[in-house]
Design a protein that fits this description.
Elements: H1 4-9, E1 14-15, E2 24-27, E3 31-35, E4 54-56, E5 60-61, E6 75-79, E7 82-86, H2 95-103, E8 106-107, E9 112-117, E10 127-135, E11 140-147, E12 150-158, E13 164-171, E14 176-181, E15 201-209, E16 212-219, E17 222-229, E18 232-237, E19 240-244, E20 249-257, H3 266-282, E21 286-288, H4 297-314, E22 335-336, H5 340-344, H6 346-349, H7 354-357, H8 360-365, H9 367-375, E23 387-388, H10 409-420, H11 423-447, E24 449-450, E25 456-457, H12 478-498, H13 503-511, E26 517-518, E27 521-522, H14 531-534, H15 556-569, H16 577-589, H17 593-600, E28 608-609, E29 615-616, H18 627-642, E30 662-664
Length: about 675
Amino acid sequence: MIDRKKLVTRHNPILRGVNTDSPLTVGNGEFAFTADITGFQTLYNEYKTVPLCTMSQWGWHSYPGQYTLDDVKMTRYICGGREFEYAAEQFPETAGAYDWLRRNPHRLNLARIRLLWDGEEIHSRDITDVKQELDLYTGVLHSEFKLHGHPVAVRTVCSQNADVIGFSVICNENRLSVRMDFPYGSHKKNASDWGKTFKGHETDILAEGIKDYRIQRNIDTTVYCIRIRDVNVIKSGINELTLIGGPNELNFTVAFANGKPRDNTFDEAYESSADRWGMFWNKGGIADFSGAKDPRAFELERRMILSMYLTAVNCAGTTPPQETGLVCNSWYGKFHLEMHILHAGWFPLWGRRRLLTDSFPWYVKILDEAKENAARNGYIGARWPKMTGPEGIDSPSRIATLLIWQQPHILYMLELSWQDLPEAQKDKFLSDYWEIINETAGFMCGFVILGKDGRYHLPPPIIPAQEEHKPENVLNPAFELCYWRFGLEIAVRFAGRHGKDHTEWAAVIDKLAAPPVENGLYQAHQNCPDTFESYNRDHPSMLFGYGFIPYPRINGQIMSDTADAVLAKWDWDSAWGWDFALTAMTLTRLGRPEDAVDILLADYAKNSYVTSGNNFQRGRDDLPLYLPGNGSLLFALAIMLAGYGEQGDMPGFPKNGMWDVAHEGISPLPY
């Protein structure tokens, strides 16, 4: 048995000073608070790289105005004798509607909570002797420092039962207070506009008890509530509160909700955090690399543990996560459905299925919108959006509206969850999500066209996973072809389990075109014979149909040669965090574990993991952290450790005596 507490806590992040790349976050999947070295958001103005936000899955805002896709001039494509319309390009006459739909709704920074000294702002120059440690095993952030030479100790904790942040502050000088500031909403990275103070952006104290305050926030049509307990609260500005505790100690909680906030004391929040994180670490899969002799093993274990924590905090809510989770805004705070499985697909493989399945009802909720999205171009079934908010509307974009590789994701995620379900729950699960399966497969079958060669093809206009190609020119992108087949195979399995006819789906599977090959290598798509000369950048997606998913028609030798070409010729600095993990999966399935480990830990700009554990995208100010990198790392490790199908144990690590790794509770990929 692995000593899980020892394993987890040896990777507690520890900061000894200001590190603007690595503020630490506490949260519960629905709500999160990102803190600086004080355990608060005291140094907010100094954290430009990763902003200090308080965010939730439910906290969204829209600017005044109201547009629909009907207000946007569509881009017309004529391909194969058919006409298609997508909200792709921005035209001057409808630029206002285009921009509004991209920027709204945007995720909202709910509050800034900071310490003051003698009522004045604190700066990093005022702070010395810092030791801040995030106890991963309990989810509690411990911060110790000297402020103007006086010792201060802070504990910061997020309840796991409600969206409540709790603080405990000890200082022998009675000079500390807490300020809560509330911004107007913004689509920008910090999700905050601090310049807006007009009516429509208000903070009202609705009820007061003995150290028990109920606050209502009104931002245009967005309304949310806050409950502050165990301190005295003074309204010190239009959108500003001052919190005052006892002479030497503050113990208080701040609860947020889009309805009635929950009542939670600091002790209750602390207990729920310790209980939930203890359960998280002790149930499900884990791996211990301490027996490995390879000098990279400790770093891989660190990335694994911190990625588990970060994805549980940011990617396990009731809606799909945005790429920066609940830390800050990326792409206006919206989520990208092609990333959902990369964030959260690892959960069922590591015995934590519920952290994924909690988001499935959202797909049911937006099913009608997905069907309307398909119908706009004459398709049946449900076409899932790429970039969207809670309402499921596909945001205008020259890329998002034409992307298709997100379509099979929900089928794959349902199958991974099905494999981990107890038998007693499978009938209800199938009944709950059969319509999703049916409509998804219906669209996929309607989207392909039957060519003169008797094969079904993926026709233009398409933006493939490698977003470097003109949509009118893309025919049969290699990864999407493989994934289309695999997704439909899953749908056929579900249909058989449910006693439903699947003849049409099976016919498409049978006649689907093979991935394109040129000069003995798999290409990006059929009309891209110069893949490795002119398009050797961004995602090397021609590798991903054999690893992340199985594809029985792949020629192993051709794929291995393709992998060699990618490793030798690719511009890896242009790759994204998840590319390294998916490439490692393919190399594992090819029986090349040395190469799999090498690429998983390769030293490139977007494959770095900072002290907090976040996959840091160096060179991208708008994307300072990238959770699909963390989640895909764990997906890859499941395959590399537990294998796939009938494959034996540890196929992703060399049998050279350098990788003695213990693992338990991780399921092999089913296929």
